[in-house]
Amino acid sequence: MKKLTRKKQGRVIAGVSGGIGEYIGLDPVIVRLVLIFLFIVTGLVPIVILYLAAIFLVPEEADPTIRDI
């Protein structure tokens, strides 16, 4: 089962776009372009609030170099 996580590698700000792109099967650049488009269309506040919420609510992906014992 897929889990939505923030990416550690290839992140630009907090890894939200990379995580969303991996979850839905799109390139993170496309997700970023959609977010920029929504930013322009809706204005600053809604997208910034959603992005900040995603930073705090979406967990960061596990470090593949750390093994659970």
SSE layout and pairings?
Blueprint: H1 16-24, H2 28-42, H3 44-57
Helix pairs in contact: 1-2, 2-3
Summarize the structure.
The chain is mostly helical.
What are the defining features of this structure?
69 residues, 3 helices
Name the poorly predicted regions.
Answer: none
The proportion of residues forming helix, as a percent range, comes to 55-70%
Query: From the helix content, strand content and strand pairing, which structural class follows?
Result: mainly alpha
Q: What is the tally of beta strands?
A: 0
Strand content: under 5%
Number of helices: 3
Describe the biggest sheet? none
Rounded to the nearest angstrom, the radius of gyration is 13 Å
Q: Average the pLDDT over all residues and give the rounded result.
A: 82
Walkthrough of the structure:
The protein is mainly alpha-helical. The protein has helices at 16-24, 28-42, 44-57. The two termini are 22 Å apart. The model has no long low-confidence stretch (mean pLDDT 82).
